[in-house]
Specification:
mainly alpha; 1% strand
């Protein structure tokens, strides 16, 4: 594939991923991963290697993107740091474990798991649609640690930051208003993505067939092209989130997950 076409696709992917990350608190990996996979396999790369590189690189991009989004949500007072910090710390260990496991699994299994996982979350979100901007969230430190660890595992396995699961969990199980769930998820994803990314870096060192300028399964060229758009655009996504009603935001969130899941199932 022509490098110009490839880089242009990544550039526009970063724009959309940045907006959705700020809007939904999901990191943008649900879009970046399948696009990278498609571009790599179209260029002749082995599908399993392409899957691992797409996931590892997406996680690397998510870190600075979520820092930008979390700071913007924090300024609007919707980040619960007492929940985000313990969840994030536990997610580092879970993410490293999940990323290590993913580095040993075939690409087809990873793609199917990725697609089915977010489809289930979309259905759950639709079942629990509600407009509750002043709901009183609840949750203990033990619950946050447990949730964070499993979010980290799923982050490593899917190449997502984990927000596709964390936002519904906070809304459905812990009674968070959707904006507070998105803001808190953005903060937590900084940690979970870092732990998972390190696993992809370590397990990818020395693997044959990696693109030039890679560190393990993280492609630095792709990272730079995506990050240059996702970081500033995530703040625009935050503005959109705070301009939407809670009900519409949940419907948009669920619809996004359904579309990405279907596209990944077709690709797989």
């Amino acid at each position: 594939m022509d490098p110009l076409i490839q880089h242009t696709c990544l550039f526009f992917t970063g724009i959309v991923a940045g907006i959705t990350s700020g809007l939904f608190g999901v990191g943008g990996g649900a879009l970046m991963t399948p696009v990278q996979f498609w571009l790599s396999t179209a260029g002749g790369m082995d599908s399993t290697l392409a899957t691992r590189i797409a996931m590892g690189t997406s996680l690397a991009v998510i870190i600075p993107t979520m820092i930008s989004g979390a700071l913007a949500h924090h300024k609007r007072g919707v980040v619960n740091w007492q929940a985000a910090v313990p969840m994030g710390c536990a997610a580092i260990f879970g993410g490293f474990f999940g990323g290590t496991l993913a580095a040993q699994l075939p690409g087809l299994i990873l793609r199917l798991f990725f697609a089915l996982f977010i489809l289930v979350m979309a259905v759950r979100m639709i079942w629990h649609i509600r407009d509750c901007p002043v709901c009183e969230p609840h949750g203990s430190t033990g619950q946050y640690l447990l949730i964070g660890f499993f979010i980290g595992i799923l982050s490593g396995l899917t190449g997502l930051g984990g927000g596709a699961l964390l936002v519904p969990v906070l809304v459905i199980l812990l009674g968070y208003p959707i904006l507070s769930a998105i803001g808190t998820s953005s903060a937590c994803l900084i940690f979970s993505s870092a732990g998972a990314m390190m696993a992809y870096v370590i397990n990818g060192i020395g693997v044959a067939g990696l693109p030039p300028y890679s560190i393990g399964y993280v492609d630095l060229v792709t990272f730079a092209i995506l990050a240059v758009t996702t970081i500033p655009l995530s703040r625009i996504g935050v503005r959109f989130a705070h301009a939407c009603s809670s009900r519409n935001l949940q419907l948009l969130f669920a619809g996004l997950l359904v579309l990405i899941s279907i596209s990944m199932l077709v690709t797989g």
